[in-house]
Amino acid sequence: MPKRQPLGICDHCLGPIPPRQWYTSRGRPRLYCSVECRNTANSRAGAPIRSGKLLERIARGEWQNPAELRTPTSDEQAYRARKGRRREVAEGRWRNPALSDAAREKLSRPRKHNGLLHTVVEKLRQGLSVTDLSPDEQAAHRAYRKQLRDARREELNRQARERYKLRQEQMTAAQRDEQRAMWRKANEKRTKVKSRG
Ligand SMILES: [Zn+2]
Questions:
Q1: How many angstroms separate the alpha carbon of residue 158 from the centre of ligand 1?
Q2: pLDDT in tens, 49-89
Q3: CA of 30 to the centre of ligand 1 (A)
Q4: Cα(32)–Cα(44) distance, rounded to whole angstroms?
Q5: Ligand 1 centroid to 34 CA: how many Å?
């Protein structure tokens, strides 16, 4: 490759080349001031060639997304995310996510849990176990868990009732008669067992 800058000037960074190194050992004008500049310049010169080859591979349908060939592990994803944040911080682009419009909207909503229960939920989220809580907090936690269990059970029961109702509606008159006969039979059996006992 011919030298583009005047003798003694680096073709990449335009910095000075020390006078005793203006020529290579073969007597040709030295292109770059350092190994770093040479590597960077060569890499950039090759970029259009590499991307051209890649575009050809894509056109032939040979290209496969490496992320799909081997999905990154969670450690790798965490590493990349951290790297991205660090770069944002270094470039002064990082913004506290809590200050975004969506986050502000969420944070301005009333708390989901109030008072004691809020303290409990926060403590558990920070990795404390139930045994680390005070008796009052444990009681609040138990009550909350019971409330969740009850709500869940109520929801399951409601779904079951709905399914039952739907099944009944879809039954023909004959099927309904059959079902009634079955119940009667089962009831008779039960009363027999009872009277015997
Ligand atoms: Zn240079």
A1: 75
A2: 999 999 999 999 999 888 888 888 999 999 999 999 999 99
A3: 11
A4: 14
A5: 6
Interval between CA 17 and ligand 1 midpoint (Å): 8
CB 12 within 8 Å of CB 40:
yes
Cα dist from 191 to 95, 125, 129, 177, 179, whole Å:
74, 54, 51, 21, 19
DSSP 104-163: HHHHHSPPSS-THHHHHHHHHHTT--GGGS-HHHHHHHHHHHHHHHHHHHHHHHHHHHHH
* Cα 88 to ligand 1 centroid, rounded to whole Å: 27
- For the entire predicted model, the pTM comes to 0.36
Centroid of ligand 1 to alpha carbon of 153 (angstroms): 72
Residues counted in the chain: 197
* Cα 3 to ligand 1 centre (Å): 13
Sequence-distant (≥ 6) Cβ neighbours of residue 114 within 8 angstroms: none
